[in-house]
């Protein structure tokens, strides 16, 4: 034993114990309950941003891009209003009212949607497709279309119908009716239509012959609604 515990060796052991104890007291130990560094960092970051008045937010490229995008959209809408108002001051003023109430409104997008809606509605009416009509028409207009379909069904009539295309579509009226945006269109279309009785005899129209038709349709949509779809609220057959 004496060989191992001579005085110099004891001094070294004591010094080592003292050094280890000092390191433990300075560095501490992990207990498994330490706060994750990311949580601590988030708290510090929030405290500085909330309470340190000397922190000055730097301008970002995103805000500049947003401003540029807003300017581009404004120029685009101005060009669309000028184009689709066709030089009519009342229509131009009405479109501006709608844009002011609903910044997401686009005359061009509306016209494109109206073209598709027109084809869908006249085709669904010829086919007696009430389900499609119900989603596109105002209640009163739907009831009118439904009555016409029912009358045709009672008579045993069938319709052969082909939508050929649109020759012209233009806005004739536009504006706000309280919270509702209302737009009236003149629509000139070409179709092939023939109605046959139960025996197959043609009672209206001409099979295989393209004819021109003209309608005046009014669409309505609440500017407060999240639903982007417009409803057909009035129709008028033009000569």
Task: Spell out the blueprint of helices and strands.
Blueprint: H1 7-27, H2 37-51, H3 61-84, H4 89-101, H5 107-127, H6 130-136, H7 139-154, E1 158-177, E2 180-196, E3 202-222, E4 231-238
Give short descriptive properties of this protein.
239 residues, 28% strand, 4 strands, alpha+beta
Structure, explained:
- There is one protein chain.
- Strand 2 (180-196) and strand 3 form a beta hairpin.
- It is elongated and about 110 Å long.
- Helices cover 49% and strands 28% of the residues.
- The protein starts with 6 loop residues before the first helix and ends with a strand.
- It has a 4-stranded antiparallel β-sheet.
- The protein is α+β, with helices and mostly antiparallel strands and 239 residues long.
- The chain has helices at 7-27, 37-51, 61-84, 89-101, 107-127, 130-136, 139-154, and strands spanning 158-177, 180-196, 202-222, 231-238.
């Amino acid at each position: 034993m004496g060989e191992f515990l001579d005085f110099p060796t004891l001094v070294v052991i004591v010094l080592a114990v003292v050094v280890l104890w000092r390191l433990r007291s300075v560095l501490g130990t992990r207990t498994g309950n330490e706060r994750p560094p990311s949580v601590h960092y988030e708290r510090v970051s929030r405290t500085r941003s909330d309470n340190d008045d000397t922190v000055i937010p730097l301008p970002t490229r995103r805000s500049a891009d947003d401003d540029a995008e807003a300017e581009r959209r404004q120029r685009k809408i101005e060009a669309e209003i000028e184009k689709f108002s066709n030089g009519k001051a009342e229509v131009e003023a009405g479109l501006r009212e709608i844009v002011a109430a609903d910044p997401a409104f686009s005359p061009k997008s509306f016209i494109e949607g109206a073209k598709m809606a027109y084809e869908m509605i006249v085709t669904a009416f010829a086919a007696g497709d009430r389900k499609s009509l119900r989603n596109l028409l105002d209640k009163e207009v739907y009831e009118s279309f439904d009555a016409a379909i029912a009358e045709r069904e009672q008579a045993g009539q069938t319709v052969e119908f082909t939508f050929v295309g649109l020759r012209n579509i233009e806005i004739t009226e536009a504006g706000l009716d309280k919270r509702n945006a209302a737009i009236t269109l003149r629509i000139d279309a070409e179709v092939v239509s023939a109605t046959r009785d139960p025996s197959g005899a043609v009672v209206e129209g001409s099979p295989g012959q393209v004819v021109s038709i003209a309608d005046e349709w009014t669409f309505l949509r609440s500017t407060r609604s999240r639903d982007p779809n417009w409803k057909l609220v009035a129709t008028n057959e033009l000569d």
